[in-house]
Structure formats: structure tokens, C-alpha cells
Amino acid sequence: MLAKVSQSILFRVALLAVVGLVGTGACAFEPRQDLAGPGESPPIVAEPSTGANASPGPGQGPVQQPRPTPTPSPTTSPTRKPTPKPSPTGGCAQGEHQREVEGYLARLGGFGTVTVDGKQSAADCTAIKKFQQRYGISPAQGRAGPTTRDVARRLATTQTSQCSGGSGTTVCVDLTRQTVWVLRAGSVVMAPTITRTGMRGFATPAGTFTIDRRNIKEWSVPYDVWLPYWQHFHNGMGFHETTTYIHDMSIGSHGCVNLLHTDAVKLWGLAGVGTRVYLFGHRAGT
Hints:
Elements: H1 2-22, H2 98-108, H3 122-134, H4 146-156, E1 169-174, E2 179-184, E3 187-194, E4 207-210, E5 213-220, E6 225-234, E7 237-241, E8 257-259, H5 261-270, E9 276-280
Parallel strand pairs: 1-9, 7-8
Antiparallel strand pairs: 1-2, 2-3, 4-9, 5-6, 6-7
């Protein structure tokens, strides 16, 4: 009987020793690097599961699960902004004189394709802008407004045949339409462009004159202003680059023939002392 009790006691002591070595609860051993053999990775132990499916079965410790293979995230293409569609009008507003301007530009030519239908288009917009830039119309935004209509009408209706040049060079000035051009031996060597002549009380007279002196930059004593590309032809009057906005038709010169810079430079190169000047017609309101 004593032997059996001793065996029972020894058995319990041995069991307690085993428990002390293993530990209590359901914790898993942390992998140790020094337990792995040469060239081997340490054993992988899953984190304890949680939730309704986390409880191990009877007599089971924590279940080791293989580490899930990460799913590659889909490649995200960079967001592309939609390509804006070109404006059917080229970004230009339609003016109240659209059809008239289209018709005049079609007659003049040289500014691009225009469709005479009274509707703004990208091609019309480009042509009108080009026309406005050429003749100093501000703002040059392609809108067929009153100034653009007026300038286009004056140029398109100018008849170069109204000025006879003979065998030499003649500067022709249409006072009615406020346009200027140059003939040489009967041929147009400078196409009609715009001008602004004398205002009320200072009307530029019609007649035939001759350029008798000129200066690349003349000082006007009575009006205290420089007159670029000055070419005098009669009684203190002459051609020169405008010193104000040429399309302000509520004012005018004191008898001189005002020109845009580009035209004043070109006329300077074509004319000279002895060049004939022929002015005809009459500026309205003077």
C-alpha cells in the first residue's frame, strides 16, 4: 500500500514538472533564430485568432495558419483630364455686324477664309483678329463691332482707279473714306490703308500738291508734339505717324494726314521730296 502511494506521489511530481516546463494557457512559443538550422528560416507562428471562430477545439492549442500571400493592389492609372473640345467660334464673341464684316473681309482678301453667313466660326474669328491687329483696332478679340465694320467698309469700298498717278509716284488720299494708297507708274505699290485727316475747323483740303520737305522726326512748334516720319506737302500739313488712337473719329488732326506706324514707315520708303500728292473728296463733318 505504501509503495502504491509513493508511486502516485512520484507520478504527480513528474506531471507537475512537465507542466512547469511547458507553461500554462494557450500561448505559443516565440520563434527563436538560434533554433533554425543553417540556411533555414525560423518557424512561422500565426498570431492568435480572435472572434467567433477563434476558440480551439477540445484539447487543442492555438492553430497555426500559413501566412497569407499578399494580394498585389491593382495599378492605378493616373487620372487624365479630358481634352477640351475646341470652341466652334475660336473663343470669339459674335458682333452685331458679323455678316457685314465677313462680306468686307471676303472682298479684301488676305486675312484668311471667312464664310459670309452672319455666324461666327473659328476661321472667321482668326480672320477678324488678323484684320484688327493689322489696322490697330483695340481690343483685337475677333468681335465684329462698329469700329471693325467701319474700317472694313472704308477699305473694301475704296476705288484706286479714282486716283491717276501718271508715270511717277503719287500718294492718293480719299478724304471721304479716309484711306491712303500709293501708285507708281499707274500700279498700286501700297494697298489702301486707313488714315484720319483734319477735324472740324482744320479740314484737310482736296487738291494736288508735292512733298517739299521731310524729317524722320519733326517737332511741331504750335502743338508741342513730335511728328514721326514727317512729310510736308502744303501749308504746315503733311503725312506722319499718328500720336493718338487713330480710330477715335470724334477728333482729328490739324490738317495733317495721320497714319499707323507700319504705314508711315512704308510711305517714308516709297515717297520723297518731289512726290506728287493727290487728295479728293471730303471728310464728313468738316
